[in-house]
Task: structure prediction
Amino acid sequence: MAYRKDQGRMARMAAFWSLAILALWGARALNIQLGVLSKTLGTRLGADENGVGGLYLPVLGVGVTPALLIATLVGAASVFFLYRWLEKPVNADLLIDTESELRKVTWPTFKDVVNSSLVVIICVVFLMAFLAGTDWMIARVTRLLWFG
Result:
């Protein structure tokens, strides 16, 4: 199905970048775990047996290790497949429909948000005080019944 370029653009972009950040964070965690779990994967490429020297990326301040290469490949592949998955017609239609429905929403004013938040905070404080008082009373009654 052919889509206009701007059709569902914001929802598609938000979905892509939020999931891409998660995928890249996972690739970073993979790099760290591979470097910790394996001495071979954590050693810079071209380093001697003592771990001195080797390839280094001065702009990023990172040594080039097999763990870094594996994590970079996994991160790039996951972002690519994520992009392809979001461009599937079923997923794209869902995001386009979501954005069109969100445009129909009547959003509350700042004053409405503040008033609603105050009502929620007051109710939570009241409920907290009620439950704490009830808990205290039940504890006193139980203590009197068991220990006299």
Notes: Residues 1-105 form one domain.
